[in-house]
Request: fold
Amino acid sequence: MEALLVALFCALITAAWLSFARARTLLDMPNNRSSHRVPTVTSGGVGFVIALGAYAVWLFLEGILAAQTLWLLSGGAALALLGFLDDRLDLSFKRRLLVQMAVMMGLWTFLDTLPPLPLWGGLLLSGWALSLLMGLALLWLVNAFNFMDGIDGLAASEFIFCILLLGLLAVALGQRSYLLLAAVLAVAVFLLFNRPPARLFMGDVGSYFLGYLVGILGLLLVRDKQLGYWSLFISLSAFTADSTATLLGRIHAGGLWYHPHRTHLYQLLATRWGSHGRVCLLYLAVNGLWVAPLAMLAQNYPAWASLLGLLAWIPLALAVGLLRNRLMTAEDQVPRVVSNSK
Reply:
């Protein structure tokens, strides 16, 4: 019942923001790097950010949510604020990265409580090296969700899938079940506005928040020994494979890889097919037929989890690289750096 009230609150805030932003023409204007052609209201993620933030505070006041969990979720609020400012002011890459890194540094005491990460050949990673790796992984996940939020419905549907899968895989959810269910319903409400053709974009305020939220909730389950590291890694592999393979491809091509573009596989497919909905269905099919079964195997057979992680991720990354090369045109190539040397 409480989760339904959160969803209703999210719907009211989202509808109010849509009306407010339209009246003040707070629109995402299409350009040659966009995957949309119609000016569309952005920053719609404020609806689920405010609704879930208020619910987390209420759970804490009721004694249901631990103080540390509320503190960890406040990092998502900080990133959402950063995203909102970026939506309005178009902040530089360096400024965004510095704030994101500061948020991750604030998680150090939490990351230090995580159990060792089992690697290949029986090796275990722990201590400061594990904390650093998990901080960087969470930083990348926040940006991966931002990179992958380029067509209607994709980021929201991926978040819903990942949270549902984590809930299914976890041995026991405890207090986490309140947040997971509320998060699913709140983002599902937003998806009603964001489904193709979208009336509303979540903006950086929403994508930063969702990337952080799915990562931090997953790590909380890992810390409490309810979920394996590799099950979490596999659950996120559809987004991380596309974003990582695309970034590496752009770096290899040379030039301004950090500039906006539309050369992720999902963007190229949306252009080729002329449909955002078909691309979303493809990613959901990959998640259902490939990602979910392998994540379940990793959770049930922890001795094989690290190898299953490679099996899940590497073929997806290779497929992204191969398909990108086939679909990219000359106009899609990464801009080259012009040397100023004399």
User: Anything to note?
Assistant: The longest strand covers residues 27-28. Residues 2-332 form one domain. The chain has one domain: 2-332. Residues 9 and 283 are 29 Å apart (CA to CA).
